[in-house]
Amino acid sequence: MARPEPDQPLLPSVLDRLIDLEPGTTTEARPRASARLEELKRSVRRDLEWLLNSRRLLASPPPGAEHAPRSLLSFGLPDFSHVSLENSEHREALRRTVEEAISRFEPRLMAVEVTMPEGDALRRGVRFRIEGLLRVEPSPEPVSFDSTLRLPTRDFVVED
Predict the structure, then answer these.
(1) Where does the source fall among the domains of life (predicted)?
(2) Which of 33, 55, 109, 116 could cross-link to 132 by cystine, CB 3.0-4.6 Å?
């Protein structure tokens, strides 16, 4: 990822640049730097939720397809609907998979670490804590998100 100049404004994601929340307005007001940072964090949170709720099309890449692991065919998580999340080994495997997917497909975050709080009950879901550094200038900004995998539906909710 190219590093922007220190005086360059934070660049929203491609999706955020394509969405026009005020189509009747011909010019957009420039938000303050702190507002842009909060907006960027919200954008990352939303995109993390989309990533974690997407399922891969490929279980494993075909032979000779060296770029497949970083392509849209591998975007998201593998299907884990058959996995027993009451098993601690399966939960740990899912934690690693979540961490790898974020590291691979969310370029705005670096030094990603996903942890699972100890002693959490499985009644409603499996909780994850996502921590990393948001790539902004002049220095990376620490961020963290709390995520819950809801057991009945197997969907993720990501919160600030």
Answers:
(1) Bacteria
(2) 109
Residues contacting 27, CB < 8 A, separation 6+: none
Q: How many helices (H) and strands (E) does the chain have?
A: 3, 4
Number of domains in the chain: 1
For the full predicted model, state whether its pTM sits above 0.85: no
Q: Is residue 96 part of a domain?
A: yes
State the SS3 of 50-81.
HHHCCECCCCCCCCCCCCHHHCHHHCCECCCC
Give the pLDDT confidence of 129-138 residue by residue, as tens digits. 999 999 998 8
- Report d(CA 12, CA 124) in Å as an integer: 34
Instruction: Report the C-alpha gap between 52 and 60 in whole angstroms.
Output: 18
- In a domain? residue 5: no
Domain that holds residue 120: 34-159
Cα–Cα dist 136/6, whole Å: 9
Residue 67 placed within a domain: yes
